[in-house]
Amino acid sequence: MESCIDEYDEVSEQMSQLSDTDSVLENTEDCDGSETASVMEESPESREISTRSVRKVYLITYSQADLERFPSREAFANTVLAAFSATKSGMSDVLHWVCSQETHSSGGRHYHMSVKLSHPRRWLRVRHYLDEKRGIQVNFSGNHSTNYYGAWKYTTKEDNEFLQSPNHPDLANSKPPQTLQASQSLIESGRKLGKSDRKRKRARLSIYDVSQLVVAKGIKTRVELLALDCQQKKEGKEDLAEFIANRGSKVVDEAIHVGWDIEEAESKLRRQQMSRLEILREALQGPCVENCKGQWLELALDILTRNNIPGGVFQSAVHDLLDKGRGKYRNILVKGSANCGKTFLLNPLNVIYNTFSNPASGNFAWVGAESAEIIFLNDFRWNPHVLPWHDMLLLLEGQTVHLPAPKSHFAKDILFSADTPIFCTSKHELIFIKGGCIDEKEPR
């Protein structure tokens, strides 16, 4: 019996949505000849849906609200949710909702509330409950509620302090899409849509729009953007989905990178103007890294003591290298057996600075070193395929070095002339072997 009722409810909802939509939407032709739907001028308060309508989404309006009884959005929302709960039948629960407060054109305040249910249900019992039990008359509108995003957008259009249910899907862009801005302005101005307006091509999200969106939402990866798109698409918001599907992965990644490049440009420029020692002092004033609890210094001094290295000597060497940069007798190589704490002593460099770590094998292994603040060669083993020996010596001595770069991304090889400090750990000294023997003439 319950399955029959569910089937009837689903059919009723579809029939109701079709009948309601027909009275609100008219078919027009877009520039490419495809059919689109344009919104007729009509206030959502001006018409109420049929008492036989069965829906999953409802837009509720309480005009000329009694602010003494319902002083806040939360108070009105809790009252409506209690009405849905008290009149519940079957498995229909409230999934999420949004509530706003607006100033009425004729004075006073009114509340808008959009509700999405887990299963379709009728609305009349809810209104009767609010009328009889709470003494308020609300309007269940048929406009803007064919999907939840449409109802949500109307509800939040004028109220920046709207209230949403916990774990509500993120449906807000960093700014309203141009298509929604245009539609809203047409409705508010009361201007009818003429043929020339109907044939205007619908604007879509640009790379700039998406770049501002990812920054506003704190999105750093494509997966996070796809997750947001999935949330919005479930509620009927598809402009972001169209951008991702139509523009491709390269454009999506570019939008994310452009957004954060713009957002972080000032801080990056400020950091570039700081010396390495200034960066170190600033990090000293900041919080300690997770799980360190201020114990690194104590442990580092213990490691140096166990290896008969005076703490002051090590400190002076690091300070001198950070201050003056790479060069003869300034680069630091920490040599020792496995598990003796070599990496532990230098590991804070990876947290404080933008570090270029061990180069990969291949002809273009050093690409990226030119933009790093520190070069940290951890457990380094020299290989002629990574960098020829004479270029390695020039690099350590602070001279200009030409580093190979792929011509598919670079116009020419990288000219490395920066004074970037070089820190290194290894089990042995760096040596040059020629003909199977150590070349004693080459510097170590």
Question: How would you briefly describe this protein structure?
Answer:
The chain is 41% helix and 16% strand. It is built from 16 helices and 15 strands.
What's the overall geometry?
elongated
Number of strands: 15
The chain-level structural class is alpha+beta
Strand order of the largest sheet: 6-3-5-4-7
Instruction: Work out the strand percent.
Output: 15-25%
Question: In CATH terms, what is the architecture of the largest domain?
Answer: 3-Layer(aba) Sandwich
Cα gyration radius (Å): 33 Å
- Total DSSP helices: 16
Briefly, what CATH class of the largest domain?
Answer: Alpha Beta
Overview of this protein structure:
The chain is α+β, with helices and mostly antiparallel strands. The chain has three domains: 191 residues, 3-Layer(aba) Sandwich (Replication Protein E1, Chain: A); 60 residues; 163 residues, 3-Layer(aba) Sandwich (Rossmann fold), CATH 3.40.50.300. 41% of the residues lie in helices and 16% in strands. The strands form five sheets. The protein has a five-stranded antiparallel sheet, with helices on both faces. Strands 8-13-10-9 form a four-stranded parallel sheet. The N terminus is likely disordered.
